[in-house]
Every structure is written in C-alpha cells, then in structure tokens.
Amino acid sequence: MRILYRWLEEEEELPNPMARKKPPIIPERPMDVLLVLGKGRRERALPFGHKAGEALERYLRVRARHKHADPPGSGLA
Asked: What phi and psi values does residue 34 have, to the nearest 5 degrees?
C-alpha cells in the first residue's frame, strides 16, 4: 500500500494518507495459535496466551489418563 500511495503522490493524483502512519508493532515472540472448528466446520485460528496454553497442556495430560480416554493411535484425540 505504501508503494502505491507514494506513486500516486508523485503523480499528483492524491495526497499520501500513509505518510504520517507508523508501521504496526510486531511482538518479538508470536502468540501461540490453536486451530478450532467454527461454523460450517471451517478451521479458524484462535490465538491464546501463556496461561491458557499451560491450562490446555494440564487438561490434555489428565484427559489421557482418564479411564474413558480414546486409546493411543485411534485418531480421535
């Protein structure tokens, strides 16, 4: 976008609205992402934080030991 607006400004088509915009802040470490099924069984990315990640790991460890858990390799996990 920046290149397009710079060109339009040079051609005197319109003023560059991007001239005073700051680039987005990109975190040093990207957030973890969890894929979930949404409406219409479409995959959606769901970012979550450190505490949620720890809670999910704890849940999966406990769930694997439950007497009604799916057997390993069943593909139903």
From this structure: -115, 130
Asked if residue 45 is part of any domain, the answer here is: yes
**Contact (Cβ atoms closer than 8 angstroms) between residue 45 and residue 57:** no
In Å, what is the CA distance from 62 to each residue of 8, 22, 58, 65? 59, 46, 6, 5
> Tens of pLDDT along 29-63?
767 778 888 889 899 988 888 898 899 899 989 98
Domain count, the chain: 1
Task: Note down the domain range covering 28.
Answer: 2-65
pTM over 0.85: no
Residue 19: inside a domain, yes or no?
yes
Closest by Cα among 24, 43, 23, 27 to 35: 43
